[in-house]
Amino acid sequence: MQLGSSSRSNSLSSVQEFQSHLDYWLRFIVSHRSTRNKGLAESIGADHSNVKPKVMVVVNFFEQHGTDEAMRRVPHTWSEPVMEKFSEVLNFGGLHTVQGQRQYRSLFGLNARTSRGLRPLRLALRSLFKEFSITARPIPKLCYDISAKLIKGDQIEWICPAIFSSGLPKSRLLTSYSAVLSMLSDGNNAEIEPRRIQAALEELHDQGYVVFFPSTEMSTANQGTNDDSTLVIIDTSWFCNKLVGSLLGTHLKDEPRRRCPWVWDKEDIKKMLRRQRCEERHLDEILRYLQHLELCTTLDIVPGHPKGHLLFPALVKQDVIQYPVLMSANDAMATAFFGRRLRCTDSSIHLIPFGVFTRLQVKLHKKYCPKNPSFHLGYGWASFMTGNVGVVVRFGGRNKQYIDILIFCPNSNGGACITMCIGTPSYITGNKLMDEIRAPANQQYMEESQQ
Questions:
Q1: CA of 243: how far to CAs of 165, 310, 320, in Å?
Q2: How many domains are contained in the chain?
Q3: Residues 170 and 285 grouped into a single domain
C-alpha cells in the first residue's frame, strides 16, 4: 500500500485507512486457508495443510512535501505489532534484527519519496518476489508436467493474452479432461493413473492455475474417466474476472436490464459465453461449474417459476429479515425459540468471508426451498418454515464474525414463557433442523454458543 498526503492530518487519516485495510486483508487470507481433500493431495505429494500462507506486505510513504521523520515512522510503528499478531498463522518472509530491533524485511526498507524513487523500489520488489518464488512450496512434478504441457507447443493458443481488450478473444479458453490425458500420454511409455491426474488438476485448481471440478462420474469412478465434457479452464482470469465478475454485476453495458436483478436466465448466460467464443458443447458444463462453486442455484425446483433460471444470492439486496410467521400477531407470546451462534474462535485474526454465507444460502435453498413458498432470502439472511417450525439463519457482527441459527416453535406452555419442553414434537423437529444447518455452516475456525 502506498501512503501519501499534503498535510499531517490527512497523512494520519491515510495511515488509519491503511491500518483498517491491512487488518482486513490479513484476516481474509487466514480465513481462506485451503480445506482440500488431504488424501487426494497426498497421492501426488501435495499435502500442504500445515504450511503457513506466504504474504509480502510493502508500505511506502510517498512524500509530496517535506514530512518529519516521526510522521514517516507511523506506518512502521503501527505495523510491527500487527505482523507479530499474525505471525503464528502467516509467513511474512522471516524476521531480521536491525540495530537491536526486530523488523520484517518484506515490510520495511523500501521507500520512494519522489516519482524517481519508484524505479529502485520496483527493482527491490522484483528481488523480493524472486526470493519468495525460490522459497515457495514446491509444485509436485505431475502438476508441473501438466502446466508445462498447457503453455507449450500447440497448447499456447489456449491462453487468452488480452482478456479485457476491445476485440473478442480468438484463442480457446478451455480444454477437456480427456485432452489432458492425451497430452500426458504423448511420448510417455508409462501410463499415468487417471486418478493421479485428477488429483494433480485439483491441486492446480487450489493453487489458482486452473479451474477444475470433476464430474459426479469422475468422483465416483475408481480409475477416473475420460469424460470429454469435463472441462479444465486454464484461463482463470477470464473465468473469475470476466465471466463471474459480469454475472455478479448489477448492470452490464449493452445488456438488457433484468426484471429481477438477482436472477439470470441460463440462455442469457449462454449467449454471453458464445460472444466470448466458447464452444457450444462446453456451455452446459460451464453452467455446472457456476453451480458447483455455489455462486448460484437453479430455480427449476421452485413451483410456479419458469424453468431455466439461476438465482445468485449475492445479488439480493434486501437486508430486512422476513421472519417466519407461526401464528397471529396477537398471539406472539405463544412462540418459543432457541438458537446457536457460530462464531470465529479469534475474530482478531479470522473473519467469515461473505462467500461462505452465500454458499450456505445456496445449500439451504436446495434443501428447503422445493415446494416451500415460505422460503425467503436476502442480504445476509435466509428464513423458511418446515411444518409448524420456523427457521432464521443470519450473518452478522461488525467484523462478520458470526452466523446465527434461530429456531421458532409454538409454545405449548403459553403465556410469556419463551422456553419449551425438550420432549415436545416441535422441539425435536427444530433440534433436527439445527443439526442439519449447523454442519455445513460450521467452519474449522468457529466455535459454538447456545442462545
A1: 14, 15, 30
A2: 3
A3: yes
Are 205 and 252 found together in one domain?
Answer: yes
- Block residue for cell numbers 409454545: 411
What burial letters (b/e) apply to 284-307, b meaning 16+ CB within 10 Å?
ebbbbbbeebbbbbbbeebeeeee
CA atoms within 13 A on the CB side of 401: 13
Which of 265, 287, 313 is the last residue in one of the domains? 313
- Domain co-membership, 361 together with 424: yes
- pLDDT tens-digit profile of 73-102? 665 677 777 778 888 888 776 544 333 334
| pLDDT tens digits for range 344-384 | 777 777 777 778 888 889 988 988 888 788 899 999 899 99
Does 319 reside within a domain? Answer: no
Domain finish residue from 289, 313, 337: 313
- Tell me which long-range contacts 359-366 makes (C-beta under 8 A, separation of at least 24): 359/294, 359/440, 360/393, 360/403, 360/440, 360/441, 361/313, 362/294, 362/295, 362/296, 362/297, 362/313, 363/294, 363/440, 364/393, 364/437, 365/297, 365/311, 365/313, 366/297, 366/301
* pTM confidence score: 0.71
